[in-house]
Amino acid sequence: MRFLHTADWQLGMTRHFLAGDAQPRFSAARRDAVSGLGALAAEVGAEFVVVAGDVFEHNQLSPQVVGQSLEAMRAIGIPVYLLPGNHDPLDASSVYTSALFTADRPDNVVVLDRAGVHEVRPGVEIVAAPWRTKAPTTDLVAKVLDELPGSSEAPVTRILVAHGGVDVLDPDRDKPSLIRLASLDDALARGALHYVALGDKHSRTQVGGSGRVWYSGAPEVTNFDDVEADSGHVLVVDVDDNGVTVTSRHVGRWRFVTMHRQVDTSRDIADLDMNLDLMTDKDRTVVRLALTGSLTVTDRAALDACLDKYARLFAWLGLWERHSDLAVVPADGEFTDLGIGGFAAAAVEELVATARADTERAADAQAALALLLRLADRGAA
């Protein structure tokens, strides 16, 4: 028996920094990752798809988002089992019980809206642990596992579909909602379960040493690579008499990249320019720059010109302010050959002195000098 394990689609997700057409393209890529599961399922011969929580970004979605999402699921063409997670729990405002969702839900889409066993076909069952609130106070998996018979009592293949943190990966191991790996391993050992499909962690992750407990990660990126190191995957899972085989397939198309760079010289800026230029798929790449260093006003103007150029090419590019620290110190003689004199020259000298001082006005003076150089065409990249 073969199926696809995915999670954390978070359809309807927005990112505040995506402007212009970047946000619509990002949203379309998330839907494309969903509808594209149909081609993958046909290629590998998967019977069904399980989505281990957070299908939607939240429960308050526009009719357009809900309708387009359901059409993407319809395109998959095989049964798709949706588990409500912490972003889209089965509470009073649940998207899953909305009039639009219930009216337009395709026949191949099944909401795992009750805890316990759901039959896929004779001999194959899904064990579900749906969220009914954003902050459960108990381990939602523990109860459903306690009620499962062992393999000798019921010779069926069972897939647990659950959402949330696992105790061995969470620093707060006393959190009551954590899923206990020991209870999962026990259920696998006694044959009550054969595979555990988890959601919530957006990076593809194997949990424990059994090879049967996995987070699939999000199929399309949701955060920067220093937080979400291995997203963009769907897991192809085989369960047979010989055990379980898990194969990963990369389906994501977007990247959220964090770059840390020290920039002190024009050469450092040229290296940054080259690295940005070499990056492919700029229209589907978000770049967050953590820049530190000390630059002359001329070099800072060149850096600003470089960043302006690439901000027009990437889906988004900007400074990570909390992790950037760029000092601007005018160099001796930096403004002597601008061809100005009299009052204007005196004003420039005053700006230089202010820019070198450790005062609140220094940043404004540095920006004014950088603008002057750029207008004089000395800081163009």
Automatic annotation (TrEMBL):
UniProt keywords, alphabetically: Exonuclease, Hydrolase, Nuclease
One Pfam family, short name: Metallophos
InterPro entries reported in the protein's UniProt record: Calcineurin-like_PHP, DNA_Repair-Maintenance_Comp, Metallo-depent_PP-like, Mre11_N, UCP033093_metalloPase
Protein name listed in UniProt: Nuclease SbcCD subunit D
Organism: Mycobacterium saskatchewanense
Domain of life: Bacteria
Family assignment from sequence similarity: Belongs to the SbcD family.
Domain Calcineurin-like phosphoesterase: start-end pairs: 1-177
GO molecular function, one term: exonuclease activity
Signal peptide annotation: none
